[in-house]
Automatic annotation (TrEMBL):
This is DUF2637 domain-containing protein. It comes from Actinomadura montaniterrae. The chain crosses the membrane at residues 40-62, 74-97, 109-128, 134-154. The lineage of its organism: Bacteria, Bacillati, Actinomycetota, Actinomycetes, Streptosporangiales. Residues 18-31 have a biased composition (Polar residues). Coiled coil: none annotated. Keywords: Membrane, Transmembrane, Transmembrane helix. Residues 1-31 are annotated as: Disordered. Pfam families: DUF2637 (PF10935). The keyword Ligase does not apply. It comes from the Bacteria.
Length: 315
């Protein structure tokens, strides 16, 4: 016998299905449009990034080749070409690892070291001239910035697709409510809640659970008087637990039929003893019997017992 869940009338099928179909069609259209825009942007930006890398390599080619001539003679050209190809391979492999969600930062660090080395060589060739040093360092800095932007985009996209990336708490919320924002961020990290809206919903349920414990045991006393199972549930409350499941979790797996039977026994005992059967009396008796029920559930039990009495089913 289910006593805590109300029956819901089925929603009309026609309009709902039409709205759902329209929403699905709109979502599909938006997704296709976004994918088309992404492909166009990639087709335009990828050649520009390649051109920037080639120009940067050409800008430092002569300087590095002249520096390598005493050691490599006629093959001095392979030093700048090999360094530029190595940088491109390292960065391309690093972006591929990011796309596969298997990042290995050593690839990026080595590429940065090679780029930094070429920049130092070219800056030294400028012989202390500020304008020359800035011109030599301009294209490598632009190239690194663009590559890091691509890496950031891939990392965010992969994190959202795999569900591993935790969304950030908005800056406005940090400014308006720094303490609660810190607690929200902490719970999102501890419970690995990746979506910010899911974190808000979980925070709301956590506050609701705490308010129920405060109502039952006192504003501060609940931290010591509440059963251990209820206090631990606040630390391990999953994001997908609905309200009815949380209310029933405080009874440590107690069935509804068992709890209702205990409430009926308490009512019969109160009638025999001539005691007034109230919500507080029912709650105290249930807790004395080992049922850690909240006041909300006690009220529901009392309502069911009154319905039984009105129908002539209570004894």
């Amino acid at each position: 016998m289910t006593i805590f869940k109300h029956r819901r009338l089925p929603a009309p099928a026609g309009p709902g299905l039409q709205e759902q179909s329209a929403g699905s069609a709109t979502g599909t259209t938006n997704s296709e449009t976004r994918d088309r825009v992404v492909r166009v942007v990639v087709a335009v930006v990828a050649p520009l990034i390649t051109a920037l890398a080639v120009l940067g390599g050409l800008g430092s080619f002569t300087t590095v080749r002249e520096l390598a001539e005493p050691h490599f003679k006629g093959l001095a050209w392979i030093v700048p070409v090999g360094m530029d190809l190595g940088i491109m391979v390292l960065l391309a492999w690093d972006l591929l690892m990011e796309y596969l969600d298997l990042p290995w930062p050593v690839l990026r660090w080595v590429a940065w070291a090679y780029i930094g080395g070429t920049v130092l060589v070219n800056v030294s060739a400028a012989r202390g001239q500020l304008a020359g040093s800035v011109m030599y360092a301009a294209m490598p800095v632009l190239f690194i910035t663009v590559v890091e932007g691509v890496r950031h985009l891939i990392r965010r996209w992969v994190g959202l697709a795999s569900g591993r990336r935790v969304e950030r708490v908005p800056v406005a919320r940090w400014l308006l409510a720094p303490v609660s924002s810190l607690l929200l961020w902490r719970r999102m990290v501890l419970w690995h809640v990746t979506a910010y809206r899911d974190g808000l919903e979980l925070e709301y349920r956590h506050l609701l659970a705490v308010s129920r414990l405060q109502e039952e045991y006192g504003r501060w006393a609940w931290r010591w008087d509440a059963p251990l199972a209820e206090r631990l549930s606040l630390r391990r409350l999953p994001a997908d637990v609905d309200e009815d499941e949380f209310e029933s979790a405080s009874s440590a797996g107690t069935g509804e039929d068992e709890l209702l039977a205990a409430a009926r026994r308490i009512r019969r005992q109160a009638r025999r003893q001539g005691v007034r059967f109230t919500r507080d009396y029912l709650g105290d008796q249930l807790r004395d019997m080992g049922y850690p029920v909240a006041n909300t559930r006690v009220r529901r039990l009392l309502a069911v017992l009154r319905d039984d009495s009105a129908q002539g089913g209570g004894a």
